[in-house]
Amino acid sequence: MDLSKLKKRPSHPFETIAVAVSFSPRCLHVLAEAKLLSETFKASLILIHIGEKTSEKEQHFDDLMNQVGMDDSHYRVIWMEGDTVETILKLCKLNMVDLLVLGALEKENVLKFYLGSIARNISRKAKCSVLLLTNPSEQLRKYKKIVVNGVENPKTIHTVSTAFYVAKHLKVKDVTIVNEMNVPGLAMAIADDSTAPEAKEIKKNLNEEMEESIHSIMEKCDTSGINVMNKSIKGKPGYAISKYAKDRKADLLVINSPDTHLNFLDRIFTHDIEYILAHLPCNLLIVHSRV
Amino acid sequence: MLKLVHSDIIVLLASIGGILILARIFAELGKKIKMPIVMGEILLGIILGPTVFGSLYPDLCNSIFPKVGAAKIAMDGITSLAVVMLLFVAGMEVQLQIMLKQGKTAVYTSFTSMIIPFALGFAAVWFLPGFFNFKADKLVYALFFGIAMAVSALPVITRILMDLNLFKTKVGMVIIAAAIFDDLTGWIMFSFVLSLMGQQGEITSIWFTIGMILGFGLFMLIIGRYVINKTLPWIQQKLSWPGGVLSISLGLCFLGAAFTEYIGLHAILGAFIVGIAFGDSVHLQEREREIIHQFVTNVFAPLFFVSIGFKVNFIENFDLPLVLLVFFLAVGCKVFGAALGGYMGGLTRRESLAVGFGLNARGAMEIILGTLALNVGLIDSKMFVALVVMALVTSMMSGPLMKRFID
User: Fold this and answer.
1) d(CA B253, CA B261)
2) Which of A115, A228, B152, B332 shows the smallest number of beta carbons within 10 Å?
3) Residue A192: which of B97, B155, B176 has the nearest Cβ?
4) H-type alpha helices, B164-284
């Protein structure tokens, strides 16, 4: 397979959706939601299980499919042995998966978080978009509010347009684009030599610049029928938007894929996506723009 | 026992009051001609101190700003508090994540903008000792001079980037990440050098010092940071606001400073590391951060920077060849080091030079470094004056020179 095609493949539409099957207690709900998503986005569905293929597991698998109401013409199953994270990532690449659906706990215990759980490790490394479902259900949930990160980054245009694509298909009317404001040294620089009006002006300019950048992104997206709101928030990138999504009771948070290869140090000195992965505020869609 | 008597209290309070008001007037006048606020404060110190007022009216100057006695000791205590708090707020702006986030360009720039000036500064003392007047061991002096060449000043740099509307650009973020790295490594290394004073190079003591610095740093940045982050919401909700956050933050700053002083490291290290741990909390609100900065920057910082002018006679100790050597060495090695890192990290030649001139601003951090070195007898007054001049000139030239390369 020509993997170079992946490079410029747009982040949407979602033509191929994959779901990792682990036979965990929540597996049935993850499968059900993945099936409904594949129907909504008219995407083909791939079920991936990493582990030995046994007759017992096959039987379990068939039972799950029956409960979900899927017949084998609607999906393809891939069984493979190997390192769970690496194998799933490899299979996603080989099968040109556009969206990988995984079940994830809202919060892992401290040890597991630092060592890295499977879902979170895949989220850090995936070369396709990843949807982490914190509370999967048999029925496709009613998504009402989507929060999108509008950080200044070349990837953001793809993330925002993917968020609108998802919003249209899931019939979401309320999308908020959030920009986080965090300038190291700003407080000290302002305290040093700014009058109150100057300090106010500096902050106002910062807000205006952010709003302008969001507007320029929105101009390139199809937002018809969606109520879009811009919001600038102060705080640490990642943590601030996670808190905002939680406070707003968002159903889905949409963010860019990480810019750098994340490792253990990024969890010790937590930043950006790691704050979100540390405590998922709601379902999380990490958009891999492949640019 | 030395005790503050009635007259000492009057002198102390009057001098603090006078300094605060005059410093504000000088700072505001300086702002009109785009002079850094710290320059106005130092200029006031030079006028009020032995350089101008003291040489014209020595008796009057001595009665208002005594050189000995209880009032002088009390004033020294206040300026020591000021420097500890200044390092605390400097630490609060250090965001270790910025470096991790910015990737290759920031990593290259951070390392080269630190290592090259440090190495060249060290080599200058080591191979050209005739230019320098050692008061301490040659190795300690060379280490100090290397650090003095390498340090940057994040607040000045942020301000310049803001004025040029560059802080959100790739170049701006690389400069900020590198300035944070230079600050962090510079202050840790400087506290190591200060702790070497008086150890006569005993290997066991040196390793003990390094172990203590690493131990304290790692403890505070991992466990201390975690505990502060977990308890800050409780402080914000259960204690009066913003008084609770202000008193707890400064309380931790002084405890950290006292601890590092107790274990043989300098107090500034404790304050700086506690500042990083405190400033990193996701729960610290922007308003609280601003209040802490306003309190320290506008009350204690002027007392400290004005007091610098009292320390030496700037005219008598102005050694032109030394001033020029320090200035050109500082500018050359910092601009070259930072620009090289930026270029290696993928920036264009012009962007790399903009990064070099951006990081060249030394500002208040260099002056604090020089003052502490003077206080412990590591450097003499001539070197101190040369460092102050270099810090002020590099801060003023940084913005215009960056602008030339960024258009």
Assistant:
1) 12
2) A115
3) B155
4) 170-196, 203-218, 225-238, 243-262, 267-279
